[in-house]
Amino acid sequence: MRSRTSAPWRTTVLPLAGLLVIGLNPLAAQAGDEHAHHHHHHHAASAVSRSEAAITPPRVNLRNQDGATVVFADAIDDGRPVLLNFIYTSCTAICPPMTRIFAEVQESLGDDRPRVRLVSVSIDPEQDTPRRLRDYARQFGATEPWLFLTGSAAASTAVQKAFNSYRPDKMSHTPVSFLRRAPGQAWVRLDGLAQAGDILRELRPMLPPRP
Amino acid sequence: MHRLLALAIALLLPALPGQADEALLGEGQRLYLEGLRADGSPLEGWRPGGERLRGRDMACVQCHRRSGMGTVEGVVVVPPITGPVLFAPGQPPAGHTPRRAAGMALQDHSFRTRPAYDAPRLARALREGMGAGDVPLDPLMPRYTLSERELAALQAWLESLGTGPVPGVGSTTLHLATVITPDADARQRDAMRDVLQRCIAGRSPPPGRGRRPWVLEEWALSGPPQGWRNQLEARMRRQPAFALVSGIGRDWTPVHEFCEAEGVPCLFPNTDLPGPDPRASVYLWPGMVLEGAVLARHLMEQERLPTRIIQVFDPSDMGREGAAALRGALVSQPVTVFDRTFRGPLDEAAWRSLLPPVDAGDVLVLWLGDADLERLLRSHKAPPTAAGVFVSGTLAGLERAPDARKVPPPWRAGLRVIYPFDAPEARLSRMVFNLGSWMSTQGLSLARDTERTQGNTHAACEITARALYTLGERYSRDYLLELVEDSYAGATASAFPRFTLGPGQRYGSKGAYLMRIEKDGSLAVDGDWIVP
Q: What is the mean pLDDT of residues A99-124?
């Protein structure tokens, strides 16, 4: 079922325990989120949808939680497997669980923790100053090498678009996690609230064997 | 309607205490807002499939918000859990039928079809994640470890949400107010008033359509700032306002303090001096402190810091706030910040001698109003040899392109304007596009010297109107603020290039440009939009 393929956009759906309920809320409709509505049914099992995609990380300048300027493509192309998501620090319902799950992944990696680059890119970069990102990272116990990135609105948008995750309204963003074994390889995209176990199942085989 | 529901609940659910005791309510509030137990220890629980959670991560307010009205993020619907909603049967939204298409059916969220919650059902939902309609709750909803006392406390707090009288909500009308302080410039004040009155009148629900029409009062203050707070309190006693919209003034501190103390939403006043740490107030921008912070950020991004920063300001004017912010942001940097203060009026010789000797490695920052800036610049035939000269665009009234002509030509090359607005031409064309035709229909027109006030006032009205429409008849000041945070897209005609809000955010615009002065005296963007 979990077919590995290098063909971009080929998708398999993994049903998980629990429920995802799509409401008829006028706000959700107003968000124009048609894409997110299809395939889902009332009381359908909550699903994480797995796909693979070729993505070229853009060479834009961003700032990390320490205020240092980094070139995004270089920051994630350091040879390590990468786990990436999009967040904003004032987000209420989705980002705290997403960040908590990444923290749990980092925790579970144990001795392998320094061998995986975690990256959280802010989709509200003007609000999320490096200082706010640093406080946010601390709140979730994030440690090296987990990068929190912000920058100009244009740079953040460029990254979101490269990952096919851009939404004009940050409130309409949906949970997505991205993983990549090494620079130049395809990215695994997990749409939905992937739990730490889901992510670790993808991530562990990406780690090169220890010498 | 809510009162009837509350009565029905009281009759149907004798397990619910009619009057929660204060201690219990306080414990419930702490659980809800902070995720802390009565003894200060963190609340504990877990998410299905996830790890254990504690404290703040578990606090209801994280998702259901302070109002209890919930939120929508992407496809995640966080249902409302206020007393009148939670302890009554779910109601499908009026006038909607579930959408259907071949092969799929989109049905109502279970919170709209479930039976009413009662104490046992609430306990089952919180502890086991099973909803009142025997439908498991969303996996995002944590499962809680709670004592009987804690359950009762949470229930008491939830019952208190969304009940009780709300100030400004009359039997047939919704009362809004706008504050005008006596230090506001008369022309800007009139520009604000013209746009606001017409916009509120035009966006108000018409009478007889089931929604309370909006009534806008003008609260014009008088005398020195020390007396404003009393005047505001008296106005609020005479006719409470649900929210304050737009308004105008230079020194906004007393109004800010009133809004924060009263907990009344004060939405987007035209001021360059907002008060500190807003909660009930939402501002267009952080004001003069932002200019100081932006300049500090710019200086720190240069290859080397200046040796000295000499800032000139009148400590009785708002320039002091910009100066203090610049100093504060550079406090741990190897640079000397030297304040040169004055109290006007000064004669030409005094203006000339105001500047201390300036070295090539120094930066000069002029926090001066337009007349003072012109006098200082003209008192020197040539600018001193400095690493840079910066002036406050807000204070000097340089936000309009032709006004930069008052900067004498010898000064122009080395001078940069701190400019927390959209570039003049871009801004004007956006305003004409988004606001021009509405203004015409109202018998108003955009004017070069008032367009910033006109556009910002329209943005304030439009954001508030959108939030009030979504609010409907579910009156709550906290909920209004939460909806304002979502309605920033209404700011199509603001003076700022980007205007966004989010949960808890209190400033729409967050950065500034540095502008250079072209040969013809017009302003041009020099570098990127800087967010400190």
A: 96
